[in-house]
Amino acid sequence: MVMVMVMVMVQVLVLVIVINKLIINNKLIINNMNNEIKLNGIEYVKKDEFTPSTNKDGLEYCVIRTYSAGCFAGYVKERNGKEGIILEARRLWYWSGAFTLSTIAVDGLENPDECKFPCEVSRLELTEIIEVIPTTDKAKKSIKNVKIWKE
To answer: Reduced to 3 states, what is the DSSP secondary structure of residue 137?
Structure first.
């Protein structure tokens, strides 16, 4: 009976490791599904995918969604509740090659030639901000490289 329980426990453990794709070795856990490594209780993530872009006077480059004015990308200078000031702001009017704003903020755009982003404005005051997503360097380059759309 004890032998059967031990065998079942071993099988369950092997199944958990296989399903979650975890490697456990001296307190090192690698989660390939989320590109994470945990070492001695500290989580690390892949740099090029999750490092926020901060290279304008220490300000974060973000994707911003508002209640009624649409979506934008730019450097968040100030934020007070639902209001904020965005520098080098670009309206994200129509995009292709990313399903969600979160995907745009992390992975950028796969089809930049099909996107419709008008010119950048130096300063934009927004009201009714409902979402601010920091971008990666990869995503920032992707957004900034979309050609200016003119109808």
So the answer is: helix
Q: If you average pLDDT over residues 17-45, what whole number do you get? A: 54
Q: Rounded to two decimals, what is the model's pTM?
A: 0.65
Task: Specify whether 64 is located in the same domain as 117.
Answer: yes
Pair 81, 18 in one domain: no
151 lies in some domain: no
Closest CA to 51 of 119, 140, 121: 140
CA–CA separation, 136 and 146 (whole Å)? 16
Q: CB neighbours (10 Å) of residue 129?
A: 20
Which two structure tokens, joined as six digits, stand for 72? Answer: 């934008």
- Same domain as 106, residue 41: no
Range of the domain at 11: 2-45
In angstroms, the CA 126 to CA 135 distance is: 19
